[in-house]
Each structure stands twice: as C-alpha cells, then as structure tokens.
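Trying the structure run again after the queue cleared.
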Amino acid sequence: MSGKRKCPFADTSPQQFKTHITMKQAAKMNDDLMKQMMDRTKTLLLDGQQRFWTENKENQAPVQVAVTSHAIAQCHTCNSNSPSKVCAHCSRYFCTPCSRYCDACSEVFCTLCSVLNYDQAVDRSFCLSCAP
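Done. Tokens:
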C-alpha cells in the first residue's frame, strides 16, 4: 500500500469563503464603525436603565430601612470595645462572644439575661422570660 489516497475534489472545487460578514466583523476592521456600534450599545443600555427605573418608581412601595442593633460601644459584660449588639431584655450593649440565642424565642441576649440549661445532652440557653 502506498498510503492515503488523494482527495478527488482538490483541484476542481472552489475555495470556500465566508459569504456573509456581520456588522460586528466589519466594525472590527474599521475603528469608526466600532466606535459607532459601541456608542449605540451604550445609549441603548442607558435608555433601558432609565425606562426601568421610571416604570418601577411609580409602582414601587416606599422603602423601609431596617434598623440593625449593631453599635460601637463597650460591652457591659467583658468591657471590650468591639462592635456590639443590644440585649433584647436589658437593652445594654454586649459583644459577640458574650451573646446567647434563646432556644425558645430565638432572640439575642447577653450572658446576664440568659440562663444555660444542662438537662439534655446538648447545652441549651434560654432568656429569663423563657427559662424553664
């Protein structure tokens, strides 16, 4: 055997060229066309954004801002100056290591306003209101 056979259409077939050139391909060859295309895209995006906000502004309910209970103050339990939370029972500031979540009501309390319960295999904490 002499190897691969030759392609029977190599000499007579026309070369295959891309017959359709898109606007983007033409713009890549011309800087002015590329700039025009980018400007048009930018204006379409900005117009769409403006239309979205004006339509939603009419149908939107007033925004309510949630007030977080974080503040920078001194923890009344360990006297650290880390960012603090406010106890739901006594309204004093405490740091994250001094916080406990009540297993019954899921509120955050300081160590002075919560009680640990050792009745089960897992230690549970309860606030003074929910303590068994």
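The chain has a mean pLDDT of 78. Worth checking whether this holds up in the mutant runs.
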